[in-house]
């Protein structure tokens, strides 16, 4: 096993990885920007190295600085966390070329799945159903219109290199195609440095259901059930639950087996998530994420498996610590993404957290790097805490969620706690009757 792991991330994710390492007897190295000198992950790690100024491109995305930090501290392995360099195949390759272990999938899998056209082709060939769409890149407005005629309106124009819901535009008719196409390309170019786009049928009322898998890189893959991430704003997840209220045991086992078997054929290593849209009882693959996900705790809560620990063990060459038949889903779990934002306008609210109180009690978990006196810097993502609750069934979980949200105190900055509290009382949510559009079009429209 590794003696020392460098955590190339910040915030609650860095803390999450530190905690797993600590419990495994592995020493940790935190890296941080000058803006994060007082961050909790820096305080708790065994060692820390400042890797640059506040802007992410100069610090958390600064590959030479991160590798230097790993060298000077004598780390054996690097965990990329979530976001930042976690899906950068070049980074994974460079880490390995410098003699460190990359805690994640093979660079080739990261590269292939990071290109959504290659990803769809790859999984389709392995028997996974995909959203109907263009078979490859769409290179002109005329080609986009021709594709749309075949696919059927409305259509979605999406960035091949997409992520975070950017570079995605809807067209309802041929007139709208030109603008949607141009806008999607421009947004993709600006966000990803790659303006290639492809097209899909725009599904009217799907749910977003994703399957967690874990593989050893030698053809053994286990699926750990699904997460329902349909509650979204601007194609970004707001609250997630597991299991999905929309699936029964038969549908769950079927999609899990399809996902695991495809990943086994790829000899996939480490954690992975296959994302699907689910409509009228049918699954359609949209993309695969080759990393730990923000919403991984709800899977941990219902399976009892520490996913980060498993990820580190696999990276060290150990076999999977369980077989498919060992996996049993227990109860229900919900995660709320608590952002330092106004709960109605969603404008960021950085600043000093003058008081902080985390809720507790049976079945309540908070993954957060907050503390009283912490200054939330304005340079990064606004996620400041994940509140995760577990109950023996969905109803108990909902009641627990409500009372935990009532207990949490994050003083002096605006947060999305009031949004989650309202959501936890909304009849459609309580009944499990929502699709990917409900939060924006119904709940927030009121
Ligand atoms: P990103 O990588 O930018 O997150 P995804 O392909 O994962 O993009 O899609 C993000 C979200 O956008 C989905 O969860 C869903 O809400 C919506 N979406 C994506 N593709 C479609 C589609 N074909 N029809 C309807 N909604 C879609």
UniProtKB/TrEMBL annotation:
Keywords: ATP-binding, Biotin, Fatty acid biosynthesis, Fatty acid metabolism, Ligase, Lipid biosynthesis, Lipid metabolism, Magnesium, Metal-binding, Nucleotide-binding
Example GO biological process: fatty acid biosynthetic process
EC number: 6.3.4.14
Broadest EC class assigned to this enzyme: ligase
Gene3D superfamilies the UniProt entry points to: 3.40.50.20, ATP-grasp fold, A domain, ATP-grasp fold, B domain
Pathway noted in the entry: Lipid metabolism; malonyl-CoA biosynthesis; malonyl-CoA from acetyl-CoA: step 1/1
GO MF term list: ATP binding; biotin carboxylase activity; metal ion binding
Keyword Lipid biosynthesis tagged: yes
Record domain Biotin carboxylation: where: 1-444
InterPro entries documented for this protein: ACC_Biotin_Carboxylase (IPR051602), Acetyl_CoA_COase_biotin_COase (IPR004549), ATP-grasp (IPR011761), ATP_grasp_subdomain_1 (IPR013815), BC-like_N (IPR005481), Biotin_carboxylation_dom (IPR011764), Biotin_COase_C (IPR005482), CPAse_ATP-bd (IPR005479)
Domain (ATP-grasp) ranges: 120-316
Catalysed transformations (reactions): N(6)-biotinyl-L-lysyl-[protein] + hydrogencarbonate + ATP = N(6)-carboxybiotinyl-L-lysyl-[protein] + ADP + phosphate + H(+)
Pfam families: Biotin_carb_C, Biotin_carb_N, CPSase_L_D2
Entry annotated with the keyword Nucleotide-binding: yes
NCBIfam families in the cross-refs: accC (TIGR00514), PRK08591.1 (NF006367)
Role: This protein is a component of the acetyl coenzyme A carboxylase complex; first, biotin carboxylase catalyzes the carboxylation of the carrier protein and then the transcarboxylase transfers the carboxyl group to form malonyl-CoA.
Quaternary structure and interacting proteins, as annotated: Acetyl-CoA carboxylase is a heterohexamer of biotin carboxyl carrier protein, biotin carboxylase and the two subunits of carboxyl transferase in a 2:2 complex.
Protein's name according to its UniProt entry: Biotin carboxylase
Native organism: Nisaea acidiphila
């Amino acid at each position: 096993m590794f003696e020392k792991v460098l955590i190339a991330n910040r915030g609650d994710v860095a803390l999450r990885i530190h905690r797993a390492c600590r419990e495994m007897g592995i020493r940790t190295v935190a890296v941080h920007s000058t803006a994060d000198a007082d961050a909790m992950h820096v305080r708790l790690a065994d060692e820390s190295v400042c890797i640059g100024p506040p802007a992410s491109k100069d610090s958390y995305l600064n590959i030479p600085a991160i590798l230097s930090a790993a060298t000077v501290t004598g780390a054996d392995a690097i965990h990329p966390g979530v976001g930042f360099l976690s899906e950068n195949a070049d980074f994974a390759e460079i880490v390995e070329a410098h003699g460190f272990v990359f805690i994640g999938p093979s660079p080739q899998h990261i590269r292939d799945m990071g290109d959504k056209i290659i990803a769809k082709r790859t999984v389709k060939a392995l028997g996974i159903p995909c959203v109907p769409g263009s078979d490859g890149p769409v290179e002109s407005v005329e080609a986009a219109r021709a594709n749309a005629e075949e696919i059927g309106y409305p259509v979605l124009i999406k960035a091949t290199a997409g992520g975070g819901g950017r570079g995605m535009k809807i067209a309802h008719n041929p007139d709208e195609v030109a603008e949607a196409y141009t806008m999607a390309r421009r947004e993709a170019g600006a966000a990803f440095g790659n303006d290639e786009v492809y097209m899909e049928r725009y599904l009217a009322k799907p749910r977003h259901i994703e399957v967690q898998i874990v593989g050893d890189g030698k053809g053994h893959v286990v699926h750990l059930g699904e997460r329902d991430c349909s509650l979204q704003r601007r194609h970004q997840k707001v609250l997630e639950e597991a299991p999905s209220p929309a699936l029964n045991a038969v549908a769950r086992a079927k999609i899990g087996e399809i996902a695991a078997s495809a990943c086994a054929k790829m000899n996939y290593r480490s954690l992975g998530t296959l994302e699907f849209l689910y409509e009228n009882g049918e699954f359609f693959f949209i993309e695969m994420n080759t990393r730990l996900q923000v919403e991984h705790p709800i899977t941990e809560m219902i399976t009892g498996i520490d996913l980060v620990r498993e990820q580190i063990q696999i990276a060290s060459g150990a076999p999977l610590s369980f077989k498919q038949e060992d996996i049993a889903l227990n109860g229900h779990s919900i995660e709320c993404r608590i952002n330092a934002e106004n709960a109605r306008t969603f404008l960021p609210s950085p600043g000093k957290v003058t008081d902080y109180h985390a809720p507790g009690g049976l079945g309540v978990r908070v993954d957060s790097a907050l503390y009283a006196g912490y200054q939330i810097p304005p340079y990064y993502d606004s996620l400041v805490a994940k509140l995760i609750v577990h109950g023996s069934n969905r109803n108990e979980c909902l009641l627990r969620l409500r009372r935990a949200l009532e207990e949490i105190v994050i003083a002096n900055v605006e947060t999305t706690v009031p949004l989650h509290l309202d959501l936890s009382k909304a009849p459609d949510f309580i009944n499990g009757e929502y699709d990917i559009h409900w939060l924006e079009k119904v709940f927030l429209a009121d």
